[in-house]
Design brief:
The structure is a single chain. By secondary structure, the chain is mainly β. The chain has one domain: PH-domain like (Roll). 10% of the residues lie in helices and 45% in strands. It contains one helix and ten strands. The strands form three sheets. A five-stranded mixed beta sheet has the order 6-9-8-5-10, covered by helices on one side. Strands 2-3-4 form a three-stranded antiparallel beta sheet, with no helix packed on it.
């Protein structure tokens, strides 16, 4: 199934050398989630609503979705994302020492 970009021009994530960068309008950095603050990453599927209480940063329909759980945070500790290239996202996480869990 093909993914459908939905507001990806407005907000998106970008992988950087220190973690995950959350961007607005493709150039304004809202937040950088550093590797040290990532507790776990779980793949939740293509059509899952995710987790109650999670911050929804998903911007692609029918895309592989991931739930990032942080170790601490003042606003939220769970974030839902739909990376542009999910396979690269998984490889990038593994290269930085994170296993992607699959929701059963």
């Amino acid at each position: 199934m093909n993914t459908i970009p939905l507001l990806s021009w407005l907000y998106d994530i970008e992988l950087c050398d220190i973690g995950v960068r959350f961007k607005l309008l493709q150039f304004l950095t809202l937040h950088i989630l550093e590797f040290e603050n990532i507790e776990s990453v779980e793949e939740i599927g293509h059509a899952s609503l995710g987790s109650l209480g999670a911050y929804n940063f998903k911007n692609r329909l029918f895309a592989r979705s991931f739930l990032i759980q942080t170790q601490h945070g003042w606003f939220v500790r769970k974030i839902l994302v739909t990376p542009k290239v999910p396979n690269y996202f998984v490889v990038w996480l593994k290269e930085h020492g994170f296993a992607v869990l699959n929701k059963k």
